[in-house]
Amino acid sequence: MIVIVDERELVTEGYSSLFDREGVATAGFAPCEFGEWVSSAADTDLRSVRAFLIGDCRDGAISPRQIRDRTGAPVIALSEQHSLEHTLRLFESGVDDVVRKPVHIREILARITAIRRRGSEEAAYTEVGSMRIFMDGRDPEIDGEPLPLPRRERRILEYLASNRGRRVTKTQVFNAIYGIFDEEVEENVVESHISKLRKKLREKLGHDPIDSKRFLGYRLVF
């Protein structure tokens, strides 16, 4: 999930719509709401956040260092001002990157992936047996051949791969794929997506790489 902060509701809604087309969940905040949320949100909710995008906010309304106290997710400033002084002030405030608008959603996603890779030495992909799972929106490969997946199933597979070695709950998967504030979708939809994903992976791999335990959740295995 990506968190977007901007004074203008039309802006947060616009970005949410564009990210949704790429299969990426979002949550939008006005600056006056965001500070309280980020300081009080549960750790499990913050672990679902892939990045924070900070748009038009009055000076001092958003503190990247406050975000950093709670999570290591990248903080990217979306800037409508193209002056060097403004860009330097944004970096001095603690953001990881400054992106000048207008910018394509895919470029933002690529920058997020690059920052996370630098910060955690995360590879651009994860290999699980004969399966290569990319973290930049590409379909996974099995024995070098692409396996086309619907965007939700692909994002679930990416999320499981990014948490390789750890079991994640249905709620965590839902929050990462749909966003923590999506009340229009039932959480049980995760089970349907994972069932379809497992069937496709079994057909290609000859075994089920997703281990599930009731009440405990899911994890990716060899």
What gross morphology would you assign? globular
Q: Which strand order spans the largest sheet, edge to edge or round the barrel?
A: 2-1-3-4-5
The total count of strands amounts to 11
Q: Which H/E pattern describes the elements?
A: EHEHHEHEHEHEEEEHHHEE
Portion of residues within helices: 40-55%
Q: Between the first and last Cα atoms, what is the distance in angstroms? A: 26 Å
Roughly what is the average pLDDT, rounded to an integer? 88
Global Rg: 18 Å
Number of helices in the DSSP assignment: 9
Structural class determined from secondary elements: alpha/beta
| Major sheet | 5 strands, parallel
Strand fraction band? 15-25%
| Poorly predicted sequence stretches spanning 5 or more consecutive residues | none
Explain this structure to me?
This is Response regulator transcription factor. Keywords: DNA-binding, Transcription, Transcription regulation. Residues 123-222 bind DNA. Residues 1-116 form the Response regulatory domain. This protein has helices at residues 9-21, 31-40, 43-47, 64-70, 84-93, 105-120, 151-162, 170-178, 189-205; strands spanning 2-5, 26-29, 51-54, 75-79, 97-100, 125-128, 131-134, 141-142, 145-146, 210-213, 217-220. By secondary structure, it is an alpha/beta fold. A hairpin with a 3-residue loop joins strand 10 (210-213) and strand 11 (217-220). Helix 7 (151-162) crosses helix 9. The two termini are 26 Å apart.
